[in-house]
Amino acid sequence: MPDVLPTPSLVPLQMTAPKRGKAPRHFADMTPQERRDVVTELGHQPFRAKQLETHYFSHLTDNADEMTDLPAQAKSELVGALMPPLVSKIRTLEADGGATVKTLWRLFDGIKIESVLMRYPTRSTLCVSSQAGCGMACPFCATGQMGLTRNLSTAEIVEQVRQAARALAQGEIPGGATHLNNLVFMGMGEPLANYKALMGAVRQFVAPSPQGFGLSARNITVSTVGLVPAINKLAKEGLPLTLALSLHAPDDELRSQLVPINTRWTVDEALDAAYGYYDATGRRVSIEYALIKDMNDHAWRADLLGEKLNARGRGWVHVNPIPLNPTPGSIWTASDRDVEQEFVRRLRSHNIPTTIRDTRGSDIDGACGQLAAEDE
């Protein structure tokens, strides 16, 4: 898990939804067998599929000119047919001396999404988007106020990761060439609401080279507002991913206001599913809790949260209070420092491991959705 994540905002946003489209099928949408089959159908030898895999997943390129081991005609035909341009960079914003880079991307149909690349002294983390917009309608979330435009395809998710990994490998981020280590699905969208594409991407992230990026499943975090059936399904995938539950309130009355899906699956149902995930995978669950001044930062709520977590067991969970990232026009703001510290003290008094997230990117509209909204 990274130490720092982009923080949520409270700006109500209205955006005109672009025309929705279905992304063209891409090499990254296919299984290894499907890649061999389609290469053969295009009139080329099956081993060309492995060459393409090596270039795409190991060399991190989709540029035919860089594929010098393929005949000119073959690489032109194969790249043209199997690697249509899906994600193009519009602009970037930098913070932390260039160690944090937020990128606004344009998808093939003109829709915009964001990702945030964060480099640390010993690792790097990419915050990935899984949807354009979000249908969960959380009032404190910039993306939630956009509404859902559409799901991303598997390849549109993978392309965010490939391009970030390439930027790191080529030394475009200060500090010299390095590798991408961690992925967090905490960008735009609710990942578990786009389950098929999410898992298609995850399978390629963890597949060994040259059929995937060879990342550790333990270094991939999937965040959710609490889609209980999908959490239960994820627990059966056989992958030791880290689950992060965006809770934000321990009581149903408040959480139903902050996270509307709570009217369908309550706090207790979401926590039960999260504990079930831990029980099935052995992976400690993270509880994400955005601290909002005079809204959810009361000491009694910290006590209630600690009691509910301990009622399900010990050692299964870690709480991450996140200071809210206030933005112009917000009706809410971050908790006062002394209130924040008391909230943490109360949780720790219940023996709940608790770590306040530092904030990165607050000066570059760090919360996912802000940059896309501004560009609109």
TrEMBL record:
Protein's GO biological process: rRNA base methylation; tRNA methylation
Residue numbers annotated as active site: E114 (proton acceptor), C368 (s-methylcysteine intermediate)
Gene3D superfamilies hit by this protein: 1.10.150.530, Aldolase class I
EC number(s) given by UniProt: 2.1.1.192
Main location per the UniProt record: cytoplasm
UniProt binding sites for [4Fe-4S] cluster: C134, C138, C141
Subcellular location: Cytoplasm
GO MF entries: 4 iron, 4 sulfur cluster binding; metal ion binding; rRNA (adenine(2503)-C2-)-methyltransferase activity; rRNA binding; tRNA (adenine(37)-C2)-methyltransferase activity; tRNA binding
CDD domains named among the record's database cross-references: Radical_SAM
Radical SAM core domain location: 120-363
Pfam families named among the record's database cross-references: Radical_SAM, RlmN_N
Binding, S-adenosyl-L-methionine: G189, E190, S223, S246, L247, H248, N325
Reactions catalysed according to its record: adenosine(2503) in 23S rRNA + 2 reduced [2Fe-2S]-[ferredoxin] + 2 S-adenosyl-L-methionine = 2-methyladenosine(2503) in 23S rRNA + 5'-deoxyadenosine + L-methionine + 2 oxidized [2Fe-2S]-[ferredoxin] + S-adenosyl-L-homocysteine; adenosine(37) in tRNA + 2 reduced [2Fe-2S]-[ferredoxin] + 2 S-adenosyl-L-methionine = 2-methyladenosine(37) in tRNA + 5'-deoxyadenosine + L-methionine + 2 oxidized [2Fe-2S]-[ferredoxin] + S-adenosyl-L-homocysteine
Transcription found in the keyword field: no
CC annotations in GO: cytoplasm
Stated family: Belongs to the radical SAM superfamily. RlmN family.
Function: Specifically methylates position 2 of adenine 2503 in 23S rRNA and position 2 of adenine 37 in tRNAs.
Protein name: Probable dual-specificity RNA methyltransferase RlmN
Biological classification of the source: Bacteria, Bacillati, Actinomycetota, Actinomycetes, Micrococcales
